[in-house]
């Protein structure tokens, strides 16, 4: 606890605290315990962000809290240390939030408990972007100082966030039932945060590649959305909701069936037929028609090949990079608008139903539904 | 361990042992247990349940951190004496096939609350499993019941059924039928920590032995006190104060004092006014003026206004023992001190005092037999109460205190606690004689404490000399309503208690007397110091505030008698200086009375610490304090003169600022209004003569300079300059904050439901060995001031709020360490209603429904001039207004004129009708809404804690029993636990948790009158070790939100 040790023998703190009258002595011990645990949300955030006590005092002073309350710097110091100590004592309970509600040590009103938990499990988008899809292992944890240096998030905060990911991962890994629901129940998080964690777990489990330079334009929220789509449509849980890992692993049978889609590009007639159906529908409706027509076969090959390769774990990992390379980049270089994209993919999907020799309508819909919404989400600058 | 409790009556063994009770316990489940088996990350837990010498075990619940035992009912057949003394001891263990079972932790359950049929009937709930080394380790769910057989045997040694209350007021849902008086007891034992066996046992075993022993001794003490109360014919102890003295090698003393009472439970139909403190609406200032003139001593108008010279102080400590201060004569403070008896007393209890103790024995028994004697004949007419039912307190004389320095004897026989008894007896006699000298027959707000350093022990006692209404001491007296007309000496409630109890011609100490500013009929002193809470009916001007005097005195390190002599020589100086500081600070705040005065003097190896805390207030009945005037010793020195002028200006500015801050605008009631006589010089001199005849030693110094004159501070050396500077550096609380050390803040009535109890501890290490007294004083003052500043900062979100019952305790745990521990409660109040001027209220609140009532209640709260309350007294049908003497009528008429003017100014022509009283206050409604939200919602019962006897916005419907817990915590990994701060922070949080859990298990939702009596921290950072002992107490209660809050005034009306 660096907070406490600072108190001793270090009265003149570099943060400009003056123990003017107190310079002849040192604060050996200084505690304040309320029957209802007092927690300042601002200090909590500073603690979560991994600031040292001295930094936190500095930030608070700059925030002008002293002027508001006619207090002095050492009062602020004492308060900050007390709060830090309280948070450290609470941290153990925050690791299993359900305990927080029925523990006896701290009397914290329920709405405050909810805030404490939600904030503790909140994460920085810049940070999560760095570790998304990585294995939540000791090795990754070792590299967190690089992540910290790169993102500007303190190492302490990085570690907390990483440990949170890992903790949630470990708990829900072995549970039956809906992933989001499990997270919400075991960690008492809000719906939004539970979904984000579900995505993080899903990405970590399938080790999706998200760190390549080509993917840097995508935000965490883009990935979280896509992850949610995959969880809802491509996992075992999408068909059966009572198996372990149902929302974490992709549906193997479905991936197998995806191979059948290859006929769309392998069968020359089918490919041409598909192209003409799409082109008929699109003609006159978009400025990018010429490019679409020219690129149709390429694009279709791209999407169908992605589908066909998903049985390989390696190719699953490259799912997003493939989507970008095989589809999004060509379209972007042809200057498709988002509306163009929407138009194209809608007709591309629907036209396949009219192909009389194409028998895999169900698989096609399950595949294209996700692909469509992912691409819509990902198609931005 | 050999646990051998002194003075245990052996009578029981001679009669047939009757089994009067059956204790049943059931172990249900555990949760959050620690991992005891590293290999499996699990625990194989089982539980041992022990009471007396009987032990039961549950099955082992293998491999679970949340075991479900669901045991059978373990039944203990025990006698009621054991039931009272022994705690139920529950030990959770981890089963180990190959080695000894590891203890996880323990729970001690005091089953006393189950022995009283009015308190709890079952104990059921989750208790933290506590280990003295590891702290809380999981929780255990336990059910406990007691079946008492009602065949009472005549030789009973138990006192089952006597109720105990820490609250120093009559508990809220009871009515007092009779106040029997002082009860005290102490028990002595060897401290297990100092027994030979301690060398071979583990720290854990030693701590547990101590915890268990103190628990046993507390139980025994309580039982014995209960017996005394039964003997008196009472059924309850109110203001129960238990302390323990760790005397090191010479032993362990657990002692308790309290007030024996007969209490009647009040049924809810006629619920008493739970809000007497919150809304002292029955405290009409002007009541004084039209109260019935049944006064036996109808004041004679021609009576002289005495004008005494001498230090204007009601503070009385006679110099009759080692403990006494100098006779307020700084010129020769040692004169009394060196008297031979003092040193004798301080040095050895074996000489004179031993015999005195023996003599007192038979006398005591003799007096005990006379159960219904009048107060005067009681051995100790002491009352630990600090607030009283209306009419109980007739007059207040002033603070009486006594201290004595003792050497703890090395050889100690636990079977004879007589020495300790004699020590206290001696102190109490002294207190009694001080009270007598003040013309009082009783001492209220009485408390005792000790400070021990090595072999030296300072015993202190203090209280407030008072005259009480004897009716409360007689049988079958009390119906608050109908006693009132029968008062022997009816005094107006708003000022009566201020009237001097002593004979003004034979004053115990020099003081300036004036006619009461309330009733103009009786004499009042110019300043009043008391240890009690302000009577709720007292008339106050403005707000009160916390006033502290702080003092450090270095002393040489010494041993034995030399040390004791040195300390007892220092004490009077300290008392005197503390008193002077208090007086100066009081004047600076333009106030004239102190309530809740507590003076603590702590002894360390090389210094003494003195801390006096009180709540200053301007009592309307007392004269306005004069200013503080600075006088130089060497007139003529120009630079000095200039300096004095600057200081004088600063002082005057401070006084003006404080007047504004505390809203002290006393009504300009000048002499002309009532026609009070101005003393003539001739009479004055007569009085003066008689004074100098009667008061022997105290009139030597004349500090007062005529009536209304300023309090003079002489600057004769640099010390005085320093002192004045320190006076002026006391910061006032930031805006929105008030603070006091009494139950409630004088001048604030409209509490809302926000309550935050807290404990804060600071230890400072003095690094510079060459400190002077001055330097130390500054450090100590800054320490206390900084603590207060920290509280204001931490609690800033509660503004507007008041820190109530700020209780500071200081200690010198080691050389060069100063420890200050504070427990207090922050309570929110409705700012609008108190700060607005009457004229603004109607405007801001005009839109609110129920405007009339609101105005009414606001008037009550805001108007200290008491005009509206006068109306109230008429409304509620107090017979006072019917029987008016011509003079009274005159003043009433005057008041009516003023009232009219006031009403018009307020812009409201609504006259207040009796109708309004019967509708609930809107404020009460909103308050209950707010508290509704704060209760419940979580799976753990919310337990509120407060050092006060009530929780605002709620009504106590049941007292479940006393909470008295003692814990030891030790660590050998101090650094890992976050240093001393981390260690103590955790421990205090754990203590809170255990208190809350016990209260919740009793079915309660709050602790009132909570206090932390002891917090002893010993640390050795070099060895990475620390140990701490904490003793807390309070009353477990069930309180409900005041939804159908009865109109406060109807309750009063009913009782009349």
Automatic annotation (TrEMBL), chain A:
Entry's Gene Ontology BP terms: platelet aggregation
InterPro entries, sorted: FIBP
Gene Ontology CC terms: nucleus
Pfam family, one: FIBP
MF annotations from Gene Ontology: fibroblast growth factor binding
Database matches in PANTHER family: ACIDIC FIBROBLAST GROWTH FACTOR INTRACELLULAR BINDING PROTEIN, ACIDIC FIBROBLAST GROWTH FACTOR INTRACELLULAR-BINDING PROTEIN
Name used for this protein in its record: Acidic fibroblast growth factor intracellular-binding protein
Species assigned in the record: Pleuronectes platessa (European plaice)
TrEMBL record, chain B:
PANTHER family hit by this protein: C2 DOMAIN-CONTAINING PROTEIN 5
UniProt GO molecular function: calcium ion binding; calcium-dependent phospholipid binding
Pfam families with a match to the protein in the record: C2, YbjQ_2, YbjQ_3, YbjQ_4
Domain C2: 9-127
Bias kind Polar residues: ranges: 274-293
Subcellular location: Cell membrane; Cell projection, Ruffle; Cytoplasm, Cell cortex; Cytoplasmic vesicle membrane
Keyword Calcium: yes
Protein name in the entry: C2 domain-containing protein 5
SUPFAM superfamilies named among the record's database cross-references: C2 domain (Calcium/lipid-binding domain, CaLB)
InterPro entries on file: C2_C2CD5, C2_dom, C2_domain_sf, C2CD5, C2CD5_C, C2CD5_YbjQ-like_dom, C2CD5_YbjQ-rel_dom
Keywords for the protein's UniProt record, in alphabetical order: Calcium, Cell membrane, Cell projection, Cytoplasm, Cytoplasmic vesicle, Lipid-binding, Membrane, Metal-binding, Protein transport, Transport
Classification via Gene3D superfamilies: C2 domain (2.60.40.150)
Domain of life: Eukaryota
Renumbered residue ranges of the record's region Disordered: 274-362, 915-934
Bias (Low complexity): 331-348
GO biological process: insulin receptor signaling pathway; intracellular protein transmembrane transport; positive regulation of D-glucose transmembrane transport; positive regulation of protein targeting to membrane; positive regulation of vesicle fusion; protein localization to plasma membrane
Any one GO CC term of the record: cell cortex
